[in-house]
Amino acid sequence: MKRFLAILGVMGALSQVQAQDSTQKSLKVVADKIVAQVGDKIILKSDIVNAIADFRRQGQEGQLPPNPECMFLEGQLIQKALVLQAQRDSLTVGEDELEAMLDNRIRFFIQNYGGREQLEEIAGKSIYQIKEDFKDPIRENKLAEMVRNKVLEAVKITPTEVRAYFDKIPKDSLPFYESELEISEIVLIPKSNKDVDEYVIREMYEYKRQVESGRQKFENLVKLYSQDPGSRETGGQYQMNRNDKQWDPAFFNAAFRLKEGQISPVIKSKFGFHIIQMVARSGDDAVVRHILRIPAVTDEEITVAKARLDSIRTRVLKGDLTFSNAVNKYSEDEGAKFSGGQRTGRDGSTSITYDQLDKDLIPLLKGMQPGDVSMPQVYTNERDQRCVRIVFLKSRTEPHRENLRDDFNRVAQRALEEKKEAALAKWFKEHIPTFFITIDNDFAQCGNIEDWRKAAAESNMRTTVKQ
Questions:
Q1: Which long-range contacts (CB under 8 A, 24 or more apart) does 127-135 make?
Q2: What order do you get walking across the sheet with 377-380 strand by strand?
Q3: Same fold across 3-153+436-466 and 194-293
Q4: 177-191+298-401 maps to which CATH number?
Q5: pLDDT of 133-191, one tens digit each?
Q6: Do 111 and 239 form a contact (C-beta atoms < 8 A)?
Q7: Which stretch of DSSP H or E encloses residue 65?
Q8: What is the pTM (predicted TM-score) of this model?
């Protein structure tokens, strides 16, 4: 029942993979012919062969069915039909929106290939030509998404339907869930004192002098001293674009003031202290290297932060302040303003398992009951900063077999996906006969496209009668 949603997901992912791999000179070109057509949209043999090859290159070999060409042909037929329906419905993709999507895709490729020049060298084309190659596939993918969303926008699920869906599941097929928790935290990040800051700044100016005098290479100093785990192994390198919003403003502005080869003075950001080297610059795109040093925090600053959190905890326990309001008012964790201080799992859920917690948090939670607020705890975050936090345990489930009381939202989501699949299947059942379709006899063995083959036979009959 989940065929349409699964295939649309695969085709959406492959639209990015194929665009990326099409820039590589090593991509094999197969002898081409038209194997199918929907309206005026043709599907080439190379579309199928290259899509399968791309899927395998992404390490998805084990997910391919015995006859993968059948699945990928169906995906192409679905995509073309949705694009044609978008044209019938007069749906369009604005040029500004398309340009933004193209720019995002190009930035992604530049990041993956190590720079603008490297991308152009691998592709054998200019950035402008690469964007032109991507324009139609990206527009088609967006149009298909718009039609799919239009078909599914009215699909909702009621509690009665959820229960009916759940009651059909064999009891021995119900999934088993480990213990899950809902937790929130208030985090303080103690600041280093002035003496430590000045010591680190002097060291960083020494790094700058060593590079400018030719005694050291910038990337070598990165490996020796930088405390940025995200770039240490790549020589501190990052790709930047003037339109990107995720960068720290101080770091971003300092980087774009540099000329190629120039090294910045020491810059203070929310992460620590940096020196930045401009490697290459082309318009709004830049490649930079940086060294990050995070000044050590002394026990004195940690003690002050613990005392402050202890005071906040006391107010929460007395009822003078709710934990969520305390998060908004006091937490120095960047994501707190978006999540309300809640920890989220890999799938974005607020219910997380113990294996998704950091090693310091697990022993803290073991002695807590739902509704408890922990004592202040010192820990080291992913940026190697010493921080202090208090944690609120909202709920904890016991390991259990799936049931509606504890897992209603999970069951409802699956029921909704099944209902969406049925709506899509119904839509295609009704609309496939309205398109002119041809399918090559090489795909006669593909049982999954039987409805498409019937429509192709009817299209052929209509064409024959007209002649």
A1: 130/23, 130/106, 131/102, 131/106, 133/19, 133/22, 134/19, 134/102, 134/105, 135/98, 135/102
A2: 352-353, 180-188, 386-396, 377-380
A3: no
A4: 3.10.50.40
A5: 889 989 999 999 999 999 999 999 999 999 999 999 999 999 999 999 999 999 999 99
A6: yes
A7: none
A8: 0.67
